[in-house]
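Reply to dn_fold:

You asked what the input looked like. This is it:
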Amino acid sequence: MSDLPSTDVVVVGAGVVGAAVFHELAARGVAVTLVDERRGGSGTTAWCGGVVRCYHDTPELTDRALYGWRYFHAFARHTGFDVRFHTCGFLYWPSAGRAPAARAEAARIAAAGAPARWLEPDEVTRRFGTLLHNGSAGAVWEPESGYLEADEVTRAWLRAGRRKGGRLVEGVRVHEPLRRGGAVRGVRTDAGTLLAGTVVLATGAWTPELLTSWGLPHDLWNQAIQVDLRHPATPPAGQPAFMDDVHEINGRPDPDSGGVYVGHPTGRRCTAEPQRVDPAHSRLIERAGGRRWRWLDGGSGGGGLRAAECHAPGQGNWVRPLPGAPGVLLATGFNGGGFKMAPWTGAEVARRITGTDVPRPETSTDAQHRSVS
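and this is what came back:
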């Protein structure tokens, strides 16, 4: 068996995060090889809703998501491939006591050039009352947020990365790290040894199992997510993507089916293997969603999606070196937020490897903001 050509960086995992890292490194002239035992985008990414929004509870996470919001609005400019941004808007209801902080963060987002504002309860009712059971709570409103199809984004990043000099190796499994001089200097695969200066693990839900099998300590685990497709009796006009911390639900419209995806946290740890939809959790989703959305009355179910997502303590690991394994950089443990953070992750990995910052993406919204300021 002949070895694979050596490279500066090997990225393991060709989901949406690995694809973003692959493209960003290739675009900056880094010799990068991306390896996955499956077709890129066919793992957890295949189940991803692709929601892109800015608001988070902490400015640090908001700024990372804002970076992604800008990037996705100018995706073709960065990659040369046009992937549609479905602008449906995004509504966020904060949990009890969080309204003042949410109002302030919405104002900070608006000041940064992304449309966002706090809607008082009467305005929520005026705008969305036909959709809601109870619009009495205030909410953050992002009119230019929405979603993209995750598989289209992933494949576009992979194609763009290859055009810019990156090497994509699909259908090849990584078995173990290659250690030299106390550091990891590549990986052993089905196709032989692949030498690299840095190994980036963007392996999503497979990361905890992978690190354990390599004998490397970590603080990651998998948690099951479940999102059900609900079909209202009448498709709801103007349905936004949403996150509701009052009733612990989230989702987005699915115009192709006339339905709406609705999820609720499971709190259940799981393996990376494919998950089966839990009917009991579907009933929980229906009850929780029905407390907010009027259109759930009299609707029907259209199946669901259940998958594993890699979690980390607190707000997540995002991008960091792996303790005890010099030469390994983690790009995983996103606690369910990997898609919208993928552009920031690619830029952060590139910054750490090249030592230079990646310029902030700019959209037409930014130019308009400058012209009136």
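The longest strand covers residues 300-311.
Hope that clears it up.
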